[in-house]
Amino acid sequence: MRRPEPDHHDGTSDATLGGCDDARRPGELIFVVLLLLASLGLLWSAYGISGFEALSAPGSVPMAASTAMVVTSLIVVLRTARLPRSAGETLRRDILPGVVVIFVLLLIAYALLLKPLGFLPTSGLFLIVSIRILSGRGWGFALTVSAGSLLAIWLIFRIVFTVLMPPGIVPEAEFIQIFRDLGTGAR
Question: CB 3.0–4.6 Å: which of 67, 69, 106, 171 could bond 39 by disulfide?
Fold first, then answer.
């Protein structure tokens, strides 16, 4: 992971209240337009619940909320479009650096692999790669920390809280039964 460039950015957050009022950051207009489109999609979906039947109809509250979203996002789009572009920033360097793109791809891969592989192998792979990238240390460190974290997560959620997780390719139920048999003395 790269450190902030001292001549470009001091490493502090620029997500302060009010943001950057005098310039439009790279990708900002695209983002707010996407918010407007999503709000319009939600309004259409809310309208599909019951239309404009009555104020007490099931879709009236979702339509009111999504209408507020459309109006406010339209205001934000208009305000953002009027601002001049920021001079010293780029989308690649300041908004979506490589590590952010890598983690978006890792999260998509995690979502796609969760059902076919199951929780344990998918989470293990995600943790190993993530810890290796973020720590900048070796594979041994990444494997050790990932295995310990995954074991702790599995014990807490699967054993203590009995949360069912996608089973996948690991015979998790058999492992749990072995532990139960050890505890009860069954042969």
Answer: 69
Contact 26, 89 (CB under 8 A): yes
Element (H, E) at 161: none
Question: Looking at the domain assignment, is residue 36 inside a domain?
Answer: yes
> Whole-angstrom Cα distance, residue 16 to residue 54?
42
Scanning the structure block, which residue is given the tokens 């439009």?
24
Domain that holds residue 41: 28-94
Global pTM reads: 0.66
Indicate if 167 and 103 belong to the same structural domain.
yes
Q: How do residues 20-50 score in pLDDT, each as one tens digit? A: 678 888 999 999 999 999 999 999 999 999 8
Residue with tokens 């069954």: 186
3-state DSSP assignment of residue 6: coil
The reply to whether 170 and 108 lie within a common domain is yes
CA 168 from centre of chain: 22
> Which residue type occupies 108?
I
